[in-house]
Each structure stands twice: as structure tokens, then as C-alpha cells.
Hints:
- With 160 residues, the chain is α/β, with parallel strands linked by helices.
- It is 45% helix and 19% strand.
- The protein contains 6 helices and 5 strands; from the N terminus they run βαβαβαβαβαα.
- It has helices at residues 14-26, 46-59, 74-81, 93-109, 129-137, 148-158; strands spanning 2-7, 29-35, 65-70, 85-90, 114-119.
- The longest helix has 17 residues, at 93-109.
- It is globular and about 50 Å long.
- The structure holds 4'-phosphopantetheine.
- Belongs to the bacterial CoaD family.
Amino acid sequence: MKVIYPGSFDPLTEGHMDIIKRLSNMFDEVIVAILNNENKNSLFTVEEREDIIEEAIREKKLTNISIHSFDGLLVNFAKDMDVKLVARGLRGVTDYEYEKNIARVNSTLYEGLETIFLLSNPSYSFVSSSGVREIAAFKGDVSAFVSPSVEKKIKEKFNY
Ligand code: PNS
């Protein structure tokens, strides 16, 4: 059974990696789907985000992960992949309020599409890509939130 784990991953955080690892134990294949939202003031290009995720899954020796990017609606990507299962992480009630609407919209657009939610590991419940981007913009220490390889890429980007 395959599951799609979609997101912006700009950049990949330890919170995302925790979800990817847990999904890889539960499913035959995890399709990490990067939203191609380059016009949205992204820090990393989609290609850079792909490379970062590839390196992180190699470091963790995960073998059942594939990495894709998609434009437009997630449901169209899910149809193209012939997969009717999407997974998202939930850090708390704010995520839940946002995610439940997206999940309902998606299942309305694509009948039978199910979204499952994994509660985030409490150690990462305060970690977000937007927080990492903000810390990085001020050349702050992001090491508690991202893997060493992501930290290296961030430091290259911001020259520190
Ligand atoms: O990491 P993010 O930014 O929280 O991920 C959000 C994502 C990419 C899962 C969501 O924005 C998405 O699926 N966008 C694609 C557009 C879409 O399908 N919208 C319909 C639901 S309202």
C-alpha cells in the first residue's frame, strides 16, 4: 500500500523526517510530494528541496521512499499516481483546524481519497519550516530543528 506525504518542505525539518520514518514503517511506499510553489517566496527551489530530502533519506537508510514534485491540486497528483491515501502530521489544534478543511475539500474533489493524520512527536511539536526560515534569515542556530545536512545547506544559502 502506498501513501502520499505532501508538503512544501521549505526546508525539510526534523518534524517532517519523523513523520516520513514512521510512514515508511507503516506502508510499502511513501511518496513524498513537494508542492512546486516557487512563486511563494520560497527559500529553496524545488530541485534543492528534492536534493535535501534525498540526502536525508539516504542518511537514515530508508529505502521505500520516492520523491516527486507537483503543481496545482494535490488531488490531481494523487489521481496521476493512482493513490487514494494522503498523510499529514498534526502538531496541535491549529494544524487540525486547517487540515480538516483541506482533507474534506480533497475528499470532495476526489471521492474516496482518505487523509490520515499522525500526531507529531512532542519533541518536534513546535518546529515549523517557516520558523526555520526566519531563524536562518537572521543567521540563527537552526541545529535543533533540522538535520546537519539541511543546516549545512541553510548556512550556504545565507553565508554563515
Ligand atoms: O507544508 P505545507 O505548506 O503545510 O503543505 C500544504 C500542502 C502542500 C499539503 C497543501 O497546500 C496542498 O495540498 N496544496 C496543493 C493545492 C491544493 O490541492 N489545494 C486544495 C486544498 S484547499
